[in-house]
Amino acid sequence: MRPLIAGNWKMHGSLLDSAALAEAVSAGAATAGPAAELLVCPPFPYIQPTAAALLGKGVAVGGQDCHAAAKGAHTGDVAAVMLRDVGATHVILGHSERRADHGETDAAVRAKAEAALAAGLTPIVCVGESEAQRLAGKAEAVVTGQLDGSLPEGFAAAGGVVAYEPVWAIGTGRTPTEAEIAAIHAAIRANLTAQFGAPGGGLRILYGGSVKPGNAKAILALPHVDGALVGGASLVAADFLAIAAAAG
Ligand SMILES: O=C[C@H](O)COP(=O)(O)O
């Protein structure tokens, strides 16, 4: 399975910064990790110029969220079809920051994923436990529960992507042990196969949470880790490309 290295730029940078970052990533894309598929997810206003700059350069562009409706009176929201219209091919959904900041439930994430599929976007659905849930021994149950509630019918047929991001590992410099990552990814694979049959076995499962050039090789080598969702390190082209290189 071709690894996917996705950069989530979150709410960082300016128009000039995003142009420079896109340019630097595309300049190194051909040589750094040619085996990996690269994706960057800028803030909404920078998606169109980033997609235009990266067209034909081997780096795809995605959104960080979309609304569940195709259109309508939803001030401040963006429809999946609009993302598609300006050159996005993917959309991150259910990131823990959106679940926390906007109260997004599994049902809401599922509805957004349905909209993404209808618009022809590949959804990247995020799941992950809090630190308290991990300490209580509930990490696997939380993650599989989120998968049960967040993934729509048709997710596997469309090649949807799951990202496991332990909330406590995001932006903290802390990560689970390799054994802990492997255990959750195996549980996710089992859940996808149970939900979707054989096609679920072929879906990519990304790890996210403090992925850096220094730990990427070990994490990406784990079974059922099919790429990474990278936050902070994706804002530095050399680091993002080094992570891609670690994917082989
Ligand atoms: O979407 C990306 C994640 O939230 C990971 O962020 P991080 O690499 O800064 O820990």
Automatic annotation (TrEMBL):
Residue positions of the active site: 95 (electrophile), 165 (proton acceptor)
Keyword Cytoplasm: yes
Keywords attached to this entry: Cytoplasm, Gluconeogenesis, Glycolysis, Isomerase
GO biological process, one term: glycolytic process
GO cellular component: cytosol
Pathway(s) where this gene product acts: Carbohydrate metabolism; erythritol degradation; Carbohydrate biosynthesis; gluconeogenesis; Carbohydrate degradation; glycolysis; D-glyceraldehyde 3-phosphate from glycerone phosphate: step 1/1
Subcellular location(s) per record: Cytoplasm
GO MF annotation list: triose-phosphate isomerase activity
Enzyme Commission designation: 5.3.1.1
TM spans (from-to): none
Binding site for substrate: 8-10, 171, 210, 231-232
Keyword GTP-binding: no
Cited Pfam families: TIM
Broad class of the protein's primary localization: cytoplasm
Annotated catalysed reactions: D-glyceraldehyde 3-phosphate = dihydroxyacetone phosphate; L-erythrulose 1-phosphate = D-erythrulose 4-phosphate
HAMAP family referenced in this protein's UniProt entry, alphabetically: TIM_B
Similarity comment: family membership: Belongs to the triosephosphate isomerase family.
Annotated PANTHER family: TRIOSEPHOSPHATE ISOMERASE (PTHR21139:SF42)
General function of this protein: Involved in the gluconeogenesis. Catalyzes stereospecifically the conversion of dihydroxyacetone phosphate (DHAP) to D-glyceraldehyde-3-phosphate (G3P).
Record text on subunit structure and interactions: Homodimer.
Protein name, as recorded: Triosephosphate isomerase
Name of the encoding gene: tpiA
